Amino acid sequence: MRHSPRLPLYVTLATFLLALIACVAQFPAMLSWRVAANLLTDNAFLGIVAVGMTFVILSGGIDLSVGSVIAFTSVFLAVLIRDAGIHPLAAFALALGVSTLFGAAMGAIIHHLEMPPFIVTLAGMFLMRGMAYVLSTDSVPVTHEFYGWLQSLYWRAPDGGRFRLIGFLMILTFLLAMLALHRTRFGQNVYALGGSAQTAQLMGVPLARTTIGIYAVSGGLAGFAGIVYSLYTSAGYSLATVGVELDAIAAVVIGGTLLSGGAGFVLGTFFGVLIMGLIQTYIVFDGQLSSWWTKIVIGGLLFAFILLQKVLGWATTARIRPATASAARS
Amino acid sequence: MEQMAEPVLQATGVSKYFPGAIALDEVDLRLYPGEVHALLGENGAGKSTLIKCLTGAYARDGGAILLEGVEIDPRDPLDSQRLGIGTVYQEVNLLPNLTVAENLFLGRQPTRFGFVDHRRMKRDSARILAEYGLEIDPGRLLSSFSIAVQQIVAIARAVEMSGKVLILDEPTASLDREEVELMFSVVRRLTARGLAVVFITHFLDQVFALCDRATILRNGRVVGSRLLREAGQTEIVTLMLGRQLEAATRTPHEAEPGEVLLSFAGFGRRGAIEPFDMTIRSGEVVGLAGLLGSGRSETCAAIFGAAPADRGEARLRGLPVRLGDPREAVGHGLAFCPEDRKIDGIVGDLSVRENIVLALQARQGWAKPISRARAQEIAEGYVKALDIRLAHLDMPIRLLSGGNQQKALLARWLATEPALLILDEPTRGIDVGAHAEILNLIERLRARGMALLVASSEMEELVACAGRVIVLRDRRQVEELTGADISPDAIVRAIAGEEEAA
Contact at 8 Å (CB) between B64 and B12? Predict the structure, then answer.
């Protein structure tokens, strides 16, 4: 038997299809443009932030700060637009700059001070949540005609479902990330780092640049997710998106990425997000189930995927045969 | 080959000092193109330190390195790689989670419009690997191939990136016989292309099979450099061990050994020790001799089940027995004092008494605790019998001297009253007086009818205590010496494999 590194990805795809079939079998109405459109719109910010998390987890790290960065960004935008009167586009650029720099700074601390990412980003999580409170403790509404215009952009499906701008932004993010991870040297370095930082260094991978780059990408995408969240809710609220970092991690793992790094695909994360969205949609359709069932099912799925990775790991090590029979004859 | 070409790499007077120790003392090394140069020496001779100085992993404290006549001063391994010195270590320093092609090209991927050109990378990889005799799919994960193939990929990467000097630091340590052959064919292809190769290994047979020249290090100094087709194995081994082979005092055993206690047939473990046959009788001391890495410790670990055998069978008093893990072995009356007592043996912060009753307690099971009074009684008995010097039984064992720690460890196993006691380097790191006491103790235990298996690098020690010495080379039992045939000289000859070579 020959197992491809894509096997977890196929398992994720199969899980998604099975879940979809199960949902549609019970509620045929779920197979509609409307549901698909809502799935993309409602999970846009989670998808974007999960892309950043994929980079981080592939490199063997973790970023706990992203939920707070989303909340901070949404409040930051609202305050800039309402109180400072800055045009939303300029505010977007500022927010992206701040969040990217914040991520890069965490990456620099992780690399240069040799601190575990868990601790550094945990500190970052509290810091950003605190900064959001400093800006405003109340929910700040955003009312700007440019916001209204952005929110009015959608593609209307035959059955009236609305594919909104933010859904497309998420898909665009996934496409760009796939290109960056699989087709650039930076992307290869991310995988190398996740394999073994020490070996990667011996092989000439620039550790500092890559680590800082990875956390800058995660921070920047969290900022971008904050912008999308702000467009989604038309408000900035410092108590929002608590625990989203954990949802993002869950989406990445359900997407088949190895939690210890080095193996996985962005496409898997996309379906990871969709699976989580599908479960929520199912509960909405059912109407009787408590929304906590989402968490329970996700917990079960996570466990299953971690188990799957473990089993695949065993299979790989057991399969390496001593002799070179399969390979070489000089 | 007689026309002495210019050396590719010439190191002169390389010195390296560590606090309180001279690791390298004015070492010279000359590498010629197209030659495989073996770097030999026992552990601590300075082989690794020399390599680290050459590749820039350590900053040297003196000396010069000339590469093709130009003085170089590599700052780190990456730098030396760029200059032309590539290194492959025992542990494959590649990324198992990437494909073979990605590993070969990491950091220098071919790009097209700024994006990595995977197709070209795979094509080029296949072409490069074909030169090494590997017909594999470079698009597969590195981890899906055997260690030997991974090593060859590592060599290919090092050669592609460096291309002048290739240093192989124990690349064959975890390979099978056929895999070693595959590796050798690769190295021969490279030397045919004019590369200079440094080969470090503990396996003398491999040195003579592959290398043209050898430099032997001892205690940080070069003690000799030989063309191998002119030198014999005995000469090399004598240089490595560096001892005058004085006639050691031998105390022949009077008593005949008793019943066969343990017998092995085809017993072995892949990658650790080749299958061997052996019998151990009660009231007999069997010695295991051989160079470092020859399989001494591996034999002990396989018998005790610490690294269990994966082939062959063992019989205890004639009945088949499974030695799958140390618990089973202890249950069958085996005991094992490992080589590195700091790592494998003592529990430093527990008291001497607790350390002594540990194995006995483990055998009884935790449900039946040994009472404190009984533990005291046992510990006191052995402290007296073995003359362990200590202030009181409650002191942490790490405060004892090396020799006393070793004796306490012995006491632990003796407390279980084993039928077979396995001792791996029982006298390492202890002073001369304690040395003699341990040898005495071995003799006393033998006289009481215990079977002992003693692995040691000290030939005099084996000569003094063993009734039978099994000599290992390259993880194989190559000779068995009994009675009057046992002498340091005979052991060295067996290690060097003179009979076979002649």
Answer: yes
